[in-house]
Amino acid sequence: MTDQQQKPIVIIGATGKTGRRVASGLAARNIPLRAAARSTTPAFDWTQPDQWDQVLAGAGSAYITYHPDLALPQAEEAIRQLVDCARRQQVNHLVLLSGRGEEGAQRAEQVIIDSGLSWNVVRASWFMQNFSESFMAEGIMNGELILPAGDVREPFTDADDIAAVAIAALTRPELRNRVFEVTGPELLTFADCVAEISRQSGRPVRYTQVPLADWLQALQQQGASRDLLWLLNELFSNVLDGRNASTAQGVRDALGRDATSFADYVSRTLAAEIWPQACHA
Ligand SMILES: NC(=O)c1ccc[n+]([C@@H]2O[C@H](COP(=O)([O-])OP(=O)(O)OC[C@H]3O[C@@H](n4cnc5c(N)ncnc54)[C@H](OP(=O)(O)O)[C@@H]3O)[C@@H](O)[C@H]2O)c1
To answer: For residue 38, which atom of ligand 1 is closest to its CA?
Structure first.
């Protein structure tokens, strides 16, 4: 093992959907890691750049998940500052989680690609886990998912696949300096996904489409932040316009296997009881 490999890998967003999977995958292989989030010691907060040197000091590489979303206008400058910090701390290799078809995210990717450090971009489509570990989970558990998306088809991707690709990018030097475009193996509408969850759980869950403006107004009344409202408008009016309605080969390129299907994700999620009671009526 080289000296670089023995230095810890910093996981920024280590308690998040992909970060915790990357952290547990590295730990299972006894690869040294340093989990970073606002609750860790040292703490990492995207709004507190003066903390970052301490988090990156002595690390060999970093997995970077920006919060809340790399598409936000402020993300590019934050990534630029993080790259400067990585250079100062002689962190050699950066793996950035990015979003497919998002213009803001692609500007942030370019900062990493042009950094002069070694890099990977894991450019993912919509996560399947948005249905179970994020803002769509409540609707699924309540029996009705309400969203402003129509017939657009998306190659939803499994966060376990994203984490496996990120781990490969972090640990296999021959994969460096490449973009891995990670999607699931099939194109599905939101209604298709809800129907599959309903079918496998044996419980009625329905999908209801509403106008974007009405949906955003309701969220605003419930206290959603400006950043979140901007992001949801961007996702549902631009990113979900059909531009991502194709599959990509990132899982096969990095791992030499097929991407996980939505049906497999649903059966695993039901078995793990991540949708409690409601989906086991
Ligand atoms: N969801 C999707 O469908 C999708 C698709 C493509 C790309 N992406 C990209 O995925 C990224 C998010 O990754 P993820 O889904 O794995 O994470 P996540 O589940 O959104 O978790 C967010 C992580 O960031 C931390 N965090 C929250 N606020 C923070 C702050 N102010 N400063 C520092 N850390 C903070 C959280 O930990 P603490 O709260 O403990 O600090 C947590 O570890 C975004 O950049 C997005 O662009 C998402």
So the answer is: 41
Q: Where are the domains of the chain?
A: 3-125+157-184+246-260
Q: Would you state the structure tokens that stand for residue 69, as one six-digit string?
A: 């979303």
> 87 CA distance to ligand 1 centroid (A)?
23
For the domain with range 3-125+157-184+246-260, which CATH number is right: 3.40.50.720, 3.40.50.620, 3.30.2010.10, 3.90.1570.10? 3.40.50.720
- Per residue in 166-215, pLDDT (tens digit) is 999 999 999 999 999 999 999 999 999 999 999 999 999 999 999 999 99
Q: Does the Cβ of 124 fall within 6 Å of ligand 1?
A: yes
Nearest CA to ligand 1 atom 11: 65
| pLDDT tens by residue, 252-281 | 999 999 999 999 999 999 999 988 655 544
Q: How far apart are CA 151 and CA 279, in angstroms?
A: 25
Instruction: Give the residue among 26, 17, 11 at the shortest CA–CA distance from 167.
Output: 26
Residue 262 phi, psi (nearest 5): -65, -40
Read off the pTM: 0.96
